[in-house]
Structure formats: C-alpha cells, structure tokens
Amino acid sequence: MYARSGPATRERTRPDRRAAAPRDRHIRHNMGMTGSVDPSASDPHLWLEEVTAEPVLDWARARNEITVERFASSDRFHALQRRILDMLDTDTKIAFPNRRGRWLYNYWRDAGHPRGLWRRTTFDEYAGGAPDWDVLIDLDAVATAEDENWVWGGAVVLRPEQSRALISLSRGGADAKVVREFDLATRRFVDPDEGGFFLPEAKSRLSWIDRDTVYVGTDFGPGSLTDSGYPRVVRRWRRGTPVEAAVTVFEGAAADVAVSAGYDRTPGFERHYVARATDFYHEEVSLLGPDDTLTRLELPTDADVSWYRDWLLVRLKSPWQPGDTEFPAGSLLVADFPAFLGGGREFEVLFAPDPHTALHTYGWTEHHLLLVTLHDVRTELSVLTPGPGGWQRRPLADTPPMSTTGILNLDRLESGDDFMLATSGFTTPTTLLASSVGGETVELAREPAFYDATGIETEQFFATSDDGTAVPYFVIRHRDRRGTPGPTVMYGYGGFESSNTPAYAASSGMGWLESGGTWVVTNIRGGGEYGPEWHTSVLKANRHKVYEDFAAVARDLVSRGITTADQLGAVGGSNGGLLMGVMLTRYPELFGAIVCRVPLLDMKRYHLLLAGASWVAEYGDPDDPAEWEFLGRYSPYQNTDPERAYPPILLTSSTRDDRVHPGHARKMAALLESQGHPVWYHENIEGGHGGAADNKQSAFQAALLWEFFGRMLRDGESPGRG
C-alpha cells in the first residue's frame, strides 16, 4: 500500500522469529493475469484490465500526455520536482542502516547511482560520522551489464558468518522478483551451475537454514500456489540439487493465503517452524521437528505469536481466555515456552491497553524486551526486564511531543542490549540515536531541514464520527493561518491495522506548507492507533465507519475554520485510494479536489485481480451475496453518478503494479470521463505498487500531486464539478 502499508504488506510484530511468515503476501507474477473475466459482463471498460496490451497502453499514454501538459510542464512544477529530487538524491540524508552484528548494511540511492548501491560498514566507522562504505553491489552497473531494468528488492544475509546473501531483484519495481545468491567475499553472484541458489521471477520466499540449505516457497508449477497466488507448498532445498527435487516439509490448502517456513538460530534454542495463513488475519504456527513432524501451537490464530529463548509472547487481536482469566484484545502476554508445550497455560500480562494507549511495536535485545506504545497517537518507550522476582518495567527514553520515535536494529544474537532510535515530527527532521539498555545515548546522524518550517506548528484535534467515536487527526500549518480558512489537504488510509504517526513532511513541506497550505494527517479507524480493535471493529460489514470517520474529519476542519469545502483536498493510495473513491462518490460535496493513487476501486472484481483474493478477510467476498450487499453499497466503480457534481480528481497508477491491479484506476478514469466528470489520469510504466522505480520517478509523482492541488485549491483553476 501507498507510503506506509497496504493490501499485501500487512506486518505483524514478529521481533524474534527471524524468518517468519511473509507479510509481503506473494501474488500472481503473470503481469497479464486479470482473473476470471466473464465474457458476458456488462462492464464496457473491462478491456482496460489487460495489463500490457498495446491498445491499453496507448489509452494510458494518451491520458498521460494530457495530464503532463496540464500539470507537469510549468516552471513551477519543474522547480518543485528538481527540489524534491535534490532532496532524495542528497548525500546529507541519513543512510539508515540494518545492523547485523559488527556490520551495518545500507541501500543507497543518489544522483550518481539512481538504481542504488548495496553497501556495508562497521558500527565504529558509522558512529564516527564519515564511514568508509564497502560497496557490495552497484545495481546500476549490474543492470547495464545484464541489460535489465533491475529494481532493488532486498537482501537476506546468512548469519552468523555473513559470507553469502540472497538478493531479490525485480524488473521495473514489480512485486515479482528474481532471487540470486551473492558471495560477499568475491563480490559476485554465485552461478546456479556452480551450486548457487537461484529462483526465476516469481512471488517467492527464500530463507537461510545454513550455508547449504534454505527453505523455499515459490511457483513450483500447477497446484503449488494458493488461490491468492502465494506459495501453497514449502520445501527444504539443499545446495547442488534442483529445486524440483527439494523435500516438501509442509503443504497448505488452495484456499489458504500462503504458507512458509523458517529457522530460529538463537544458540541453544534453535527451532524450525512453519506458518499457514488461512486468511489475511489468521495464521496457524507449528514447530517443525527433526523428522518434519508438526507441533501446533494452540494459540489464537489472529494473535501475533513469537518467541525468544524460553519466553513465548502472544499479542492478542481479540479477547482470549486460556484458563480462568480472560485477557482483552491488545494485551501482550508472556508464558514459559517449554511449560506451554507441556500443556501449561499460565500467562502473565506484560502490557494491557486502556482507552487511550495501545501497543505499537516490541522487540528483544539480548536481555530485555523493548516496547513502543501509542498514547493518543504519540509514542512512549519502555523496557521490560525479566528476573527472579518477575518482570520489571521502566521508561526507556523520553520522546519529543508531536513526534514518532521508533526502535531500530535490535540484534540480540550478536549486539547484546544495543539498539537505535529514530525520531522525527512533521516539522522536525529525523535524528538517529544509538544506545544500550541502561547505557548512554549518543547521536549518530541528523538530517538537515529540507523546507522552511519557521512558524509552522503541529496541533492535534478530535472529530466526532457518526456513531459518536472520537477520531484524532493532526493539523500542520503556519501559525498565521489560525482564524483564516485556507487551502488544505488531508491524508487518510484506514485499513490493515496500519497506523499514521507523525513523520517528517519533507515533500509536503516543500510542495504545500511553505506556500501557506495546511497538511492534515488523519487517524481514522481501520488503522492500529488505538490497538487491534480500532481495526477489527470496521472489517467487512462495518467498513462504512472508516469512510464516516474521514468525512467527519473533513467536516470538523470546516467547522473549526481551518478550511472550506472548496479549498479542501484529500489524498490516499491503495487501500487509501479506495477511501478516496468513496469520498468522491459518497461525499463529493465535502471536497474541492481529490488525488487517488494506485487504488482499489472495483470491489466487485477486486478478488479476481492479482493479490485481491488475499484481502477478503478485510473487505468481504463479493461472490457471497450477503457480503456483496455491503460491498456494493460503497464500491466506487459501481456507485458513480453522472448526474451528481464531483470535485476534480487525479487518478494515478503503475503498469508494473502487480499487487493492486492498474485496471482499477484505468477503468474508473474511463468511467468518470464517459460521464463528463473532471478527471485526469497518469500511469507510470514502471514503479510497482509504490508508483516509482527510482528517485526521479518519485520526485515526479510528488510534484504532480502538489501541482494538482495547487492548481485546484489555491490558484482557482478548477474546471468546476462535473
């Protein structure tokens, strides 16, 4: 999903299962797959689902030309694009590292390396402020040598020796990736003919067991994928043998979302395990014995389950009563793992939610458990330490107001109790800190300010939704705007338990705040800002509450005198793009302009397109008449009205998005166009679900968004409501 999360990127907190089940749910890798098209369907725009058909691309290019001519050809646009690109390319931004023992790994893009460098240095070098980076892979050089449009997809380093890595590369930024083994000593990919692990382009899961053995889930051929297009079969693959000969350790059902396997290499507590995701929010976890026998962990399947040494952690998503005590949703429980496996069901509460406080993330150092909580969407940090007298809890570090502080780089296997902190606010650039539990905190790096935030402040307000729920949101604006309604843009997501917390608004600052605009970030239901029930309370038939929350914030902005309906814009992507589609079709009178990015919009067919089947647990099944009853009430594509006045809308998508099908945005643009509504469309031929494959494309997309809102809300160039 756009920016923070989305369909197929739901992340459970698994701080200590090193090769846990993938949150990046694998989906169909055939870019031309459109699902089961009904030839008798009455949809005249169904042909736009053919992803790479030349007539479809011609249709997209024609609309791109119109959009670029209108919004991306002025000196103001080019100046903003250049400024954003300079920010993305600058070597003054923080090179955020991933710590693996003594090594800090980083993937870096700049003007000279648009595809990027994978590199590493030592902690001491990094802390010195001028690290001597050891470049492992120059992806620009690899792409040129191989004549491929490679986009970096990540690296999994073999622990503890760190001599090999599994490198994922995608063509044009798609989710489908090629996986290749890389030798960190020779700085070259290991030839499959020489025993190197290699998987062709697919939605694969590959994780280390040891230097010569991996767990693999991929497209092994007919019947090896689930209905959602993810691996249904997981195998143990030994070096030098064909993947077809790998030993199957687990098979799920076709109706499952995905299966996976992993290895916890904690010395003295080594464990193999498999996970079977029966839907997007329910997962069965089992330990895998030496003879591949399974020991199912009898725990709630919607809970986040993890372990470290002999501690078993369970974060509840719904109430649970394992014995005499019922624990509420949002609790974090701990038990003695061996005792649990022996039949014991004694749990201790490490965190209990309250109406204002929820658990956000958690993770282990060697001797401590670190917690990040949200109190009315503001982070607080604490450390829990087990001992003979029980668990002791104390504050970990102070956090600035109106900011987000996250804990990074917990590496309990080799780095003891060290950790890093990253903190930022909407107007405060990110600072990276290093510390150890009970030790001194030192600043490692601080990003420069990329826009002039003088006089710009952050406020938090609460709107009241239709059912009386208080919905928080942040307003970022110049203090001189108080008392004077002005151009305002609000962002929303509202799904998959993804929380919108304060973060440095660099492109928003350059494109909007500096020129007097107001930026609003909403914390509507569907996210995780107040724990799992903030999300689960609006699944399926209750989805309408998400849209009511966002509309309530829009009305509250007007009633507080922050803006007017004609000056109010809204933006969201992926699941947030669905939100934008509903705002357009159900609440058009509340907005002066809308930007809808890489969206879901046709909820009648979403489950047939690419990864859509894996999200039925979130939205519902349109093939079930009872569930289509509520889906059909809000599905934007089925609820456009040619007679109703709509604000101007910009729809954006990516041809290479193999997560949310570009047909959603294409068809909606064509439908609105046919009905005479003011609509613009832009499709990036590359970029995957994020919409951009490199910094230049990212800068273009950001500048296009702010130029559109500037023209519509600030300059008065709106063509009027269609």
What can you tell me about this protein's structure?
- The chain is an alpha+beta fold and 722 residues long.
- The protein has a domain at 56-86 and 451-714: Rossmann fold (3-Layer(aba) Sandwich), CATH 3.40.50.
- 19% of the residues lie in helices and 32% in strands.
- It is built from 13 helices and 37 strands.
- The strands form eight sheets. An eight-stranded mixed beta sheet has the order 30-31-33-32-34-35-36-37, with helices on both faces.
- α2 crosses α13 (695-714) and α6 runs parallel beside α13.
- The longest helix is centred in the last third of the chain and has 20 residues, at 695-714.
- Residues 1-40 have low confidence and may be disordered.
Q: Briefly, what is this?
A:
The protein has 722 residues and is an alpha+beta fold. The chain has 13 helices and 37 strands. It has a domain at 56-86 and 451-714: Alpha/Beta hydrolase fold, catalytic domain (Rossmann fold).
Structural class: alpha+beta
Rg over CA atoms, rounded to whole Å, is 25 Å
Please write the CATH class name of the domain at 56-86 and 451-714: Alpha Beta
In the CATH hierarchy, the third-tier topology of the domain at 56-86 and 451-714 is known as: Rossmann fold
Strand % is: 25-35%
CATH architecture of the domain at 56-86 and 451-714: 3-Layer(aba) Sandwich
Q: Helix segment count?
A: 13
Strand order of the largest sheet: 30-31-33-32-34-35-36-37
| Low-pLDDT stretches | 1-40
Termini gap:
29 Å
Q: What percent of the residues sit in helical stretches (DSSP H or I)?
A: 10-25%
